[in-house]
Amino acid sequence: MLLSVVRRLATATVTLLLVTLLVFCLIHLAPGEPLGLEPDDEGLMRLGEQARAELRALYHLDQPLPKQYLLWLSDLARGDLGRSFHDRRPVVRKIAERLGVTLTLNACSLALLLLVALPLGTFAALNPGSGWDRFAAGGTYLLYAVPVFWAGLLLQILFSVQLGWLPLAGLRSYDHEFLLGLAGLADRAVHLILPIVCLSYSGLAYVSRFVRATLLENAAGDSWRAARARGLSLLGVLYRHGFRQAGVPLLTLAGFLLPSMVGGSVIVETIFAIPGVGRLFVDAAFQRDVPVLMGLTLLSGTATLAGILLADLAYVVVDPRIRRA
Amino acid sequence: MRERLPSNLSWGAVLLGLLAAVAVAAPWVAVDPARLDLDRVLRPPSTDHWLGTDALGRDMAARVLHGARVSLAVGLLSAAIALLIGLPLGALAGYRGGWADAAVSRMIEAMLCFPALLLVLALLAAGPRWFYGMSDVLRIALVLGLTGWMPAARYLRAEFLKLKRSEMVLAARAVGAGHLRVVVRHILPCALAPVLVTAAFAVGASVAMEAALSFLGLGVRPPVATWGGLLADAREQVDRAWWLALFPGVALFLAVLGCNLIGEGMRDLLDPRRSKARP
Amino acid sequence: MNMRSAGGIERVLPVTLAGLLPVLLLGCGVADRPPAREDGPVTIRVLMSHDPPNLSLIGKVDRNSQILAAQITDSLLRYDEHMELQPRLARGWEFSEDRLTLTFHLRAGVRWHDGRELSADDVIFSVEQARDPLVENRSFAPQFRDLVSMEAVDPLTLRTRYSVATPDVLDGWRLPIIPRHLAETGAALLTGEFARNPVGCGPFRFVRYRPGEEIVLGANDDYWDGRPRIDRLVFRIYPDQRTGYQALLTGELDLMTVTPDLWHEARQTEAGAHLDGFVYYRLSVWQVGWNLDGSNPFFTDPRVRRAMLLALDREKFNESLVHGLARPAATTFHPGSPWTDPTILPLPYDPDEARRLLEEAGWVDHDGDGIRDRDGRPFRFTLMIHASTQGINDHMAAWQQQSWAEVGIRAAIEKLEWRQFRERRRAHEFEAAMAGLSFTPSPDQFELYHSSERDAFNFVGLADPEVDRLLEEGRTTFDVEARRAIYFELQQRLHALQPIGCLLHFPTPVLHDKRLKGIVPSALDHWRITRGPREWYWVAEDLAG
Lengths: 325, 279, 545
Prior knowledge:
Chain A is an all-alpha fold. The model of chain A has no long low-confidence stretch (mean pLDDT 77). Chain A has helices spanning 2-29, 49-58, 65-77, 91-126, 131-145, 148-162, 181-219, 222-229, 234-243, 247-262, 266-271, 277-287, 290-318, 320-323. Chain C contains 16 helices and 23 strands. Classes of the chains: A mainly alpha, B mainly alpha, C alpha+beta.
């Protein structure tokens, strides 16, 4: 058992390194070099050949590709992710700044999702076929079909432009530094409302229906009715015979969630002008900012693999039938 | 066995059929979507222009209708490519197990770790020259398909793993049925439902992904209208022209909804187990 | 929710609220905002769209950091609002007989913000750092490429020697000067203490920088040219324009650059009544480059190139999409510059003339399909554009497509990601490419038009001996009048040849509070000229007046 875990960890690490290598190659495949000018740059500013050569040497761009990758690896071994090509700030710092925002957003939207979906699904399972069940199913279904893009725009138009209740974009008000304590928190919260709603509504359908389906599958059996007859409270039955059986699929779900927690949604971040990981990634890709891209790949890759590993492990632990597989 | 089709399926088919019909009929029904009229810029919906005009005076109704063609084509094609890659791989991994499973699983993991956007960017921005000769729709569908096959593969692998050990399959094997027979006659019908469900959702997801690409400027090239491109344009005028965001979004929503309804309907139709749980 | 619980809520609610109230009041503190301007220090708040990449004043500059550098420190000379160079830290300069030696006489008594005196040694240090590739200064480094040596003859006299005699060497001396005794060298300049706390000799001193939030500058009481009339200059970093605009309307911001749409809106709303504004045109032009290397049969004929522009109704586009704020362009020379020939006007909108020219060049619709052709080849080409955050790029391309279709030309649009666009353009792998082009105030456009630069920035591949000659002469002529005549002739020639179709000069509208006065717009901007923020002042008058 332990052996297989160690083996899985080892293969995961190898996979991760392979992915970073692939990313490295891919970014160098894209035309244009990191040192090129941006559209806004002024003047006919071109560096002389010699100056350009010296810059390339500084960034190790003159070395053959395999050597550049090995240089990156050796820096990584020392815990150094290098400095961004764009503004020479340490990659770790750049990612860390954005990660906080992204994690907060994702955590809040996950919380909102669960807060709404769990009761919704449970209630639907307890009253299958009722008007409420159909309404919940229909409603969340419709919501799922709404593209995030559109939802963000519509919410902005409605709540910000027309009604003026919520801010249009950004994370904080203009004069946020003058708002202390609760007022400051409230300012932050108010700015996060629309993005969180955008991030969470599409999961409603899946999670609530999942909860409903899982509970119903197990409720169909006699054990459930018998347990109720024996006097177990509703909650107890739900737990013992409902959610416990849902262990495996739930854990798989959790495995999927981990990578999405550290990944920012580019669309939501762009619409609401939020400085998150998603935008950092897109900007780095467009600027060919190799160190930042490699750092972000490492981050998302680690999260993904960790999530998968956890889900698989849990799967094995929970379902003894698969254990021997 | 039901006597009539589940309502989901019929509604979904009707919706999607309507959209497809509109898409096909667009060149005859609508005015030229590329015709700009700098005198009629940003007009709200009126009798002249039912859905208003955009920043260049182009008729929004025409653009939305023509957008259906490209958006639906990209969605369907990319979903098809994703399934074409993902389903065989998933089935192989789930059924054969062993080395096949290990190889495919590692591949899936690697692809999942991979920042999809980077792959899309690299392929779209840096692809070989012949890549550009292709039609836009094909190019984007290819890229979306190549980056989106993993969920289908994983799902099918899980289903095959589960079904491989089901009594029905074990019984069939005991009787001496060959692998192929087992897969085709016993596993596929049960796995088909989730596959079709995945397919339906995949189309919806692809249409949405194309929208995201248009947002970043990598989508179908102008001046061809896609719903995603229209929404990206709408963003600039968000405080001035609500109609630019509303109508393409409704179209996108209906398309995704139609796909989802079909998916759910298929699931209800084909999966006997599920129908028991329904009221 | 049944009726029974409602009664309970009724009783509980007021008690809870009463209990929460003091907590809320205590928690919702509002810190002291800066005092009202009428009697306190004058703080001007300006919007900056993103953090500058570096604060070291010389390293890794972009436009924002250049603006900051111009406030925090000074240069030997600077442009004024008429684009003429004026002495600043240098009170005078002269060229030697052979024009290869340039001697500066520095002003005495200029002090750094820490009190030490400025000397020629600091100037030498600044140039050395700017030329160091590790410092990544792109705007000034190329301008010192012909510099051979520098010598501090005495603390206030700097002698510089160049390998080539050209009047534009003066342009490079707009370089911000940094103190040798405080700044690090090489790559450390970008990451060390100086980049966190830059010290200069300019009208404002650096107070603090909060990343993602603001940069605060305070007035320098000992500035050699007189203390600024405002006390603090605060750059609020806010990436979203619309929200910044709201702040401007409510008085939280005093000045910001806006889009033409917001400018138009401000002029129409009540809320914008307290705002004043101006529009200036940066040293840039939006242009279409025609590939002249012969790989396509269309654009080698100047008549065709001329016709392409005659078919575009720029005024109409301007009215409908830019609220009339843009200016049709004639050449790549900026209308506000003293080097620009004022007699050259933008080509008019004349589709009939366009059609005539096309027919004269042999492009006639022989087969009746609506597309002109010649020798069996239809006039179909691809216009290459790059993806950008503003939709105006796409709009222009669509508009051009339709305009050209009306004169029988079919253009397909190919949109590429920015770096890819640059690569393709540099490799001459295009037929027509549209983008913006930015310049320095110097009239020398050698890199853009000279035949020797075809592998570099001369992306259209122009090789005209007349143009080459004029460019070479213009570079080395010192007499201002003679130089001007040469560049006028060059512009006439370029206007006739139309190698680059100059479309529009896009506007930069600026809105500011009416009470903020003294802002002088220029082609460069209102920040980096001699009469910059240090001349701004605040008048606390009755707004209705």
